[in-house]
Each structure stands twice: as C-alpha cells, then as structure tokens.
Amino acid sequence: MSSALSLAHEPVTGIRHGKLGMWIFLASEVMFFSGFFTAFIILRNTNLPVFAHGASELNWQLAALNTVNLIVSSLTMAMAILSLEHGNKSRFQLYMGITFLCACGFLVIKYIEYTTKFSHGIYPGTSSFFGLYFTMTGFHAMHVIGGMIPIGWMLAKSFTKRGYRDWERVEILGLYWHFVDLVWIFLFPILYLIF
Amino acid sequence: MGAGLSAEEMQKSYLKIFGALMVFTLLTIIAAKFVHFPESWGGLSTTLHVTIGLIIAVAKAWMVVYVFMHIKFDNPYIRVFIYIPLFLFSVLVFALTVLGGPTL
Predict the structure, then answer these.
(1) Which has the least CB within 10 A, A15, A157, B32, B81?
(2) What is the mean pLDDT of chain A?
(3) Which one of 1.20.120.80, 3.40.50.1370, 3.40.309.10, 2.60.120.20 gives the CATH number of domain A15-193?
(4) Contact yes or no for B11 and A82 at CB 8 A
C-alpha cells in the first residue's frame, strides 16, 4: 500500500516525486553541514595550534573503525535495495539487518569516544576545536539515529507484511543513508587526520 | 532503476566501489599518520597533508554519490541538482589548505 504521490514519476524528468524530494532535502542538508564546515575552516586556519592540539587528543583508531562501519553499512544498504528490487526478501532482511547493526556499532564507538573525552575533562566548551568537534559529530550521530528509525521500521514491516516489496521507498531511504556516510567521509580526515 | 543492468552487474559495481572506499580509507590514514615530510618544509608539510586528505575525501564522496546513490544509473536530468552542491562543497573544503601569512 505505497503512497501514489511518493512513487509517481514526474512527467518531464521521469524521476519519482519521493526521490526528487529526498534529493532536495539532501541539498538543504549540504547547506546545513556547510555552515559547520565553514566555521571549522575559518577558526582552524586562524587558530592552528589550538586545533592541532585538540585533534591530537582524539582517538583516530576508533574513528577509522567507525569509517569502516559506515562504508560496510553503505554497501549493505545498496545490496538491500537491489535484493528487494529483485524480490529476494530474505536477502533484503539480512542486508538491512547488517546495516542496522553497523549503525548500532557506530553509536557504541561514538559513545566510547565521548565518555572518554568527558572523563579526561574535555567538554564542548574546552576549546573552539572541541566545540566544533562535539557539534559536528553530535549532529552527525543524530543523523545516524534518524536513519536507524526508518531502517528498523522497514525491516520490521518486511517481517509483518506478506509480499513486502516496497524497494522504491527503501531506495529513497538509501539516499539519506549514503548521505550520512558522505558527511563522515569529510569529518573523518578533517577532525582526526590532517594535523 | 539499473539502466538495464542485471543484478549481478549492479552487485559487481557496488563491490568495486566498496573495495575502492576501503583502499582510499587506508591510504588516507597512511598518508596522514605514517608519512612524514622533512621538518625543514615547515608549514608546507601541513598543507600537503591537508591537500592529500581532502583529495581522497572528495574522491570517496563522488564515488558514493555516483554509484551508491545511483547517479550513474538514474535519469541524467537529476544530476544538475546533485553536482552543483557537491562541487561547491568540494571546493569549499579546500579552503583548509589556505594557511600561512604572518601569524604562522
């Protein structure tokens, strides 16, 4: 019972309305994160020692593990969409489940990182670097949580609904999920690596 | 979707991108943490590290968008929505390489 509106094709472009809507939303997300990145760039370039010292306190090994987490979850999300499109529901559930678990793993690692910082007396007000670190990774983690809700919901629905094959909707969710990965692709080198 | 590609072909391109993303992640870590430029290079060394890290990040981002987000397979009409913000953002991050001046 999918909504006709989200799946209808726009007559000129041939792109589904739901998909186009997600792309426009993602374009606005690029603007949202660009504000943080711009603040980061300007503050870093004018306070390099503060930022270099802040970055040296971060655990890049944990962040690298989280990078792998998100790349794997991006692959399994793409595979989940492909499986459902070709009517393989059990494969879809497997891949979607792995995606969800990777997201959980990401949050657990983030939790470890944050609590370690707090236990070392490092808070968002510690320096301009940590203010931006907590804001940027915090908003990113909120996006991960925001993605896990529909991922879990669609996964649950595939178990409860007979003949579940709503792959076009999962594809739209996939766009969002890959965007979350995209933000991390930039956060990882900028916060943890380049100093 | 898929522009007439079979499931096997799609899966193959996904796995290729996945492999490339992993390799690029490894490269960016090696470049940042295990490659050291001579002390005498000073600020240039930081600029080089930043530039390498950003080139790899931008390459990874475009791979994700092109294949995982189906731009490769979708109607070309949609590309303009995506290429412009992504291009502008790719340029923006390179502002991180603009260091120097008397305060350094």
Answers:
(1) A157
(2) 93
(3) 1.20.120.80
(4) yes
